[in-house]
Amino acid sequence: MTDTLTRTRKDDFPGLFTADGAPWHYLDSAATAQKPQAVIDALARAMGEDYATVHRGVYSRSAEMTLGYEAARRKVAAFIGGREEELVFTRGATEAINLVAYCYPDKGRVLLSQLEHHSNIVPWQLAGWQVDVCPLTEDGRIDLDAAEKMLTPEHTMVSFAHVSNVLGSVVDGKRAADLAHSVGAKLLLDGCQSVPRLPVDVAELDCDFYAFSSHKLYGPTGIGALWGRADLLDAMPPWQGGGAMIDAVSFERTTYAPAPQRFEAGTPAIIEAIGFGAACDYVANIGVEAIHAHEAKLVAQTREALRGMNDVTLYGPEDSAGIISFMLQGIHPHDLGTILDEENVAIRAGHHCAQPLMEHYGIPATARASFGIYSSEDDVAALIRGIERTKRIFG
Ligand code: PMP
């Protein structure tokens, strides 16, 4: 095997082995990524010898923890080219999108696309936005020519997945921003799948909000981030009330802290934030460009092998980023997933929280293989072997 990125990285991830020490071919990184030992160690330290609360302690351990927590905010912001005062810690991408959907003061029409994850659909519906849906191109990209025709001055928000969690298709974020801005709307990019696999710079993209989750970026669950332009965050009212988000409280009148603290009510996810920062360090040290190139090679190999089987339907564009959806004729993706599991191959089977996209293709589910830093040609070979075995079983 010639894959240096994989060879050096697989041992960093204790989760990549079965209970009896055999390799586990984990092809579900789009759902959640395995954690490197560096992140696990950072979490253990934050929970152990470094642990204390943040922002209020007068004792030195708390002051140090506060520095660590705020350093994590700087790392996460810098990871996407943003500034710390623009970075709100949330529970994840889902909460980040909910925050904008509920708090953005100019609730008008929002343009979404046919391929969105439910977490970029339901919050807008719940918060009372008028939702319009941009169609897809033949090869499964958000059709920005159609978006251009659909956008009107009534639209105050456009919210697109930067990378589709089902198809891996990448939207041209800068063009989407230009289109949104041309009618006076803002652009939110759901960066859940892009941040782990594409270099992201919010200034270059010229977007207004960017949402993502730590656990898909090799960090812990329970934390994510909303990056927003400072002037937009400042214009948004608080969301949840409680400690840490205030300036001064009285029964007559309460005033609020500036962003980002205004949106972080209560004791924050201190340990998780430290782990999120450690994950950014780990990934930045490898380089997202290298990860992107590595995953692109594995995608090309997998697509080619699947195309060689004439009873496979492939979804999404050729240059999908790290994620491939497919169907075997006459075999339900759940059956495929179950048989692959017997071979220590883990894929995702289902609607991937994107039911409108399944409806678009007229199917209930797809099988999805998705890659990460640690994925290898061996994993691809195990997947293909498993698919061939499944086909033999189903005759
Ligand atoms: N958007 C996309 C594109 C996703 O893939 C996911 C997670 N599958 C989410 C949003 C939601 O992320 P989380 O569950 O971490 O909040």
Automatic annotation (TrEMBL):
Enzyme Commission no: 2.8.1.7
Give the reaction(s) catalysed.
(sulfur carrier)-H + L-cysteine = (sulfur carrier)-SH + L-alanine
The GO biological-process annotations, alphabetized, read as:
cysteine metabolic process
One GO molecular function term of this record is: pyridoxal phosphate binding
A Pfam entry, by short name: Aminotran_5
CDD domains named among the record's database cross-references: SufS_like
State the needed cofactors, names only: pyridoxal 5'-phosphate
* Keyword entries, A-Z: Pyridoxal phosphate, Transferase
Transferase: present as a keyword of the record?
A: yes
Identify which top EC class this enzyme belongs to: transferase
Family statement: Belongs to the class-V pyridoxal-phosphate-dependent aminotransferase family. Csd subfamily.
Q: Which NCBIfam families match?
A: sufS (TIGR01979)
What's this chain's function? Catalyzes the removal of elemental sulfur and selenium atoms from L-cysteine, L-cystine, L-selenocysteine, and L-selenocystine to produce L-alanine.
Stated name of the protein:
Cysteine desulfurase
